[in-house]
Amino acid sequence: MTRTTAWWKSAVVYQIYPRSFADSNGDGIGDLGGIIGRLDHLRALGVDVIWLSPIYRSPQADNGYDISDYRDIDPLFGTLAEFDTLLAKVHGLGMKLVMDLVVNHTSDEHAWFVESRSSRDNPKRDWYIWRDGRGGAEPNNWGSFFSGSAWEWDQPTEQYYLHLFDRKQPDLNWEHPQVRKAVQDMMVWWLDRGVDGFRMDVINFISKTEGLPDAPAIPEQRFVVAFDGFADGPHVHDYLAELTREVFSARHGDFITIGEMPGVTPARARLYTDPARGELNMVFQFEHVFIDQSRGNKFDYRGFELVALKKSLHRWQAALAETGWNSLYWNNHDQPRVVSRFGDDAPDYWAASAKALATVLHGMRGTPFVYQGEELGMTNYPFRTPQDHEDVEAVNYYERVLEQGGDETAALAGLAKMSRDNARTPMQWDAGPNAGFTTGDPWLPVNPNHSWLNAAAQLDATDSVFAHYQALIRLRHELAILVDGDFTPLMADDPQIWAYTRTTANAKLLVIANCGREPRTVDIGPEWIGAELLLGNLPDTTGASTALDLAGWDARIYSTTTPAEVSIGLTTDVKSDSGPSSRSVVSRTSATARGNSTDNPRASASSRNSRTSLVIKPVANP
Ligand code: NOJ
User: Fold this and answer.
1) Ligand 1 atom 11 nearest Cα
2) Is there an atom of ligand 1 within 6 Å of 165 CB?
3) What is the per-residue pLDDT across 160-173, written as a single tens digit (0 to 9) for each?
4) CA distance 370 to 375
5) Angle, helices 80-92/177-193, rounded to nearest 10 degrees
6) Ligand 1 in reach of 478 Cβ (< 6 A)
């Protein structure tokens, strides 16, 4: 097992989707001022890194993933001066800030593309991917991720350009050295400004297969999302290694690079994140979030089996155990809310299932990511009509279904379950108007459940979903075993229990969760007798014996030994006022032995509370 001290291995990243986080000027759209005003929330949660979804100048065809100027902030979000203020404040609070780097494509309104499309002999023509038609039609059968063909006809120059996403997002041609140089220069510009790294959007798509061949046909689909034609293409490793060399090698500092990689395989991920190859620190893989949809249509919701979900994530644990590094996520701005997807958002199970899913994810090896609102257990929105949807992917899909005479009711049900709008409804800060997100008209409606599901209701409650996330993040900082420990799945074929161990030479953790409503008794063997409960999500949870009685959505972390770094100067303090039927969180907190430097305000705050406490309190039903 590789042991390393890379700082990002024990870090937790928080993703902000600025448009939906907090609005400071009343225009109904979140902005940098809003983020600045809510940094205390992130400080209280305890995260180390903030990743900002795109805030660059953009026509907003894909909410900022269509960039028209990489070196400016969109006026919707603020100004470069406000960005500098935000960055200084984030650093002042001991956190880091990561930009979203969207360089597989630009906006069609970017100056590069405007030049490129101006004539066939423009010097920037080859900065993008232009082709002649084939027999009066598109150059190949590639489909866009946002429905329809991946090619757009440009009448003035009589050629098609490639866009794997919206027609307003033309793909850059990375084979052109000037394109790579322009991207590198832009990254250096942001690093000089002080940012701490990049999350790289669909970065495994930047090298297309030679000749852009047709993808194997799928029955009844004219256009096919052609992963084999653009994912993990022939030069992608060279391009990423070059990027690292040119942008980072001469720099001193603690940077982080995260590659978003739809369709990446474990073997490839190992190559991308092998430190010896100098490409990326970690990948965002997609296997587990493709599990409940049919191939080629994410809105065709198929349900899922826990065994398949576990096996997928466990496969990735095994594949990157010796070499490489994974990110761990349930949610982001492209995924429906996890508690409504893999959990149970009915009132009686909402909190417990949100905490249980968090527990099994944060117990694994990799860098955990928390998406805004996930730390509160935010749920899917009750979308009903086509007009409820804003996202380009959802809108195009619905139009396409209508055009093709498809089943509208099924399409709406699929959108309600899987659409990205679920992730993008405004952050629920309080029970007041618009959940405290804006004083104006929110760009996307606020979930009506903000009356009880909101940050204000959870922040000071020791038994909230928020408190559970706080505890998990604290454990990640404190326990080296969560970072480096070997991962061994248990009961892999059990359809309801998710269990595994993490092991180092002198310590062992058991992470176990009942991912269903029915209680279960689980035999875990004698080695866990008397094991210490580090974290649980229900009341009256006790130390382990050979058999555990797990209530619905009961999740626990046990430790057979107390690792030296956690035991320094700790005492235990148990309070209980929970009634028999109420739901509770049991959380243990302690001082961290890491990072307690006086110039780190978060570390000082933690050292002021240098006691361990085991707190049991009831959770109010929503
Ligand atoms: C992946 C991003 O996460 C998604 O939001 C975006 O629409 C596409 N890439 C295109 O940039």
Assistant:
1) 65
2) yes
3) 999 999 999 999 99
4) 7
5) 60
6) no
